């Protein structure tokens, strides 16, 4: 390595994109939860890149080739020091993202508890509605026997479907999947992973079926039974969250396959920033999950015209 006599060395963490000129700060970084998560405890494999740091004016950020040039410039520089400058690295720093995730857990737990109470109330209403009812409209009669036809489709036609848990466990994220999230964004990237896996299964083997695209009525195979997801599709969103985590955990492998990621002026560095930003944009992640649900509802919608055993509950019979 070339001599950098009067220039401080730079320490760079390959896994996290963290850099500093102080070894003490770098050692503190190695103890952070974010670093341990990405390296999975393999500190012995951690690589540190040292290079000459830039000679830069602290007031105006102009860069010089020598300290003499900087010294002359400082005599004339009248600009006030820049403060509170938020860089792209700040926004996409994994530690900030992970802190936001942690802060959201309490709020999510409260929502889940409320959803459980709502689901209990809905189940009571459904139990009451199962009693046969006859509504006269002239010569027209409505009854709930049609609901049974949907159950026949799920429990008989689709009795050999795999469970949602098995489906998620069988999803293995490739490096191409990860780059697709970086290039095309969260919605298309995550949706494509689900759709590609669904397309490998026969319709009767799929663990997800939608009976109403507009209302996003989703049925999921769990253990040996088919269950209707709640009105917020909490279970399906949890599955989507699991696929998010699988993408995040794939980043260290992607970095090992793309060693130029340590250089900020390379396409690999920019791709990693896009991947991390798209996976963990927590200001919009809940909205993005809802959009993925909409895509999956259309993809798994049961075409009732092709199977006479599946009929709308609202169908009216004479």
Written overview of the protein:
- Mean pLDDT is 78; it is low at 1-9, 44-52, 132-148 and 306-318.
- This protein has helices at residues 23-30, 33-39, 67-76, 88-92, 94-129, 145-157, 164-169, 175-198, 234-257, 267-279, 285-299; strands at 11-12, 19-20, 55-56, 63-64, 135-137, 140-142, 208-212, 217-222, 225-228.
- Helix 8 (175-198) crosses helix 10 and helix 9 (234-257) runs antiparallel to helix 10.
- The chain is elongated.
- The protein is mainly α and 318 residues long.
- The protein is built from eleven helices and nine strands.
- A hairpin with a 6-residue loop joins strand 3 and strand 4.
- The strands form four sheets. A three-stranded antiparallel sheet has the order 7-8-9, covered by helices on one side.
- 51% of the residues lie in helices and 9% in strands.
- The protein folds into two domains: 11-87, no CATH class; 91-306, no CATH class.
Brief rundown of the structure:
InterPro entries: Znf_C2H2_type (IPR013087). With 318 residues, the protein is mainly alpha-helical.
């Amino acid at each position: 390595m070339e001599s950098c006599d009067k220039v401080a060395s730079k320490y760079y963490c390959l896994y996290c994109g963290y850099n500093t000129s102080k070894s003490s700060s770098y050692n503190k970084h190695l103890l952070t939860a974010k670093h341990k998560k990405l390296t999975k405890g393999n500190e012995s494999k951690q690589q540190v890149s040292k290079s000459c740091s830039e000679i830069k004016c602290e007031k105006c950020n102009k860069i010089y080739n020598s300290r003499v040039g900087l010294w002359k410039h400082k005599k004339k520089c009248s600009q006030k020091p820049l403060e509170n400058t938020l860089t792209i690295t700040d926004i996409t720093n994994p530690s900030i993202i992970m802190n936001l995730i942690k802060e959201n857990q309490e709020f999510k737990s409260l929502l889940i508890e409320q959803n459980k109470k709502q689901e209990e109330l809905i189940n009571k209403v459904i139990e009451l509605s199962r009693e046969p009812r006859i509504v006269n409209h002239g010569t027209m009669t409505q009854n709930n026997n049609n609901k049974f036809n949907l159950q026949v489709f799920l429990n008989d036609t689709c009795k050999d479907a795999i469970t949602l848990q098995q489906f998620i466990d069988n999803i293995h994220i490739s490096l191409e999947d990860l780059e697709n999230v970086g290039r095309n964004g969260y919605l298309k990237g995550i949706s494509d992973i689900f759709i590609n896996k669904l397309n490998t299964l026969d319709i009767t083997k799929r663990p997800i079926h939608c009976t109403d695209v507009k209302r996003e009525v989703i049925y999921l195979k769990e253990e040996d039974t088919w269950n209707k997801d709640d009105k917020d599709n909490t279970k399906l969103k949890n599955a989507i969250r699991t696929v998010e985590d699988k993408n995040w955990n794939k980043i260290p492998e992607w970095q090992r396959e793309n060693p130029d990621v340590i250089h900020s002026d390379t396409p690999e560095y920019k791709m990693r920033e896009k991947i991390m930003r798209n996976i963990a944009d927590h200001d919009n992640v809940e909205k993005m999950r809802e959009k993925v649900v909409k895509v999956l509802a259309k993809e798994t919608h049961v075409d009732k015209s092709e199977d006479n055993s599946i009929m709308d509950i609202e169908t009216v019979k004479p």
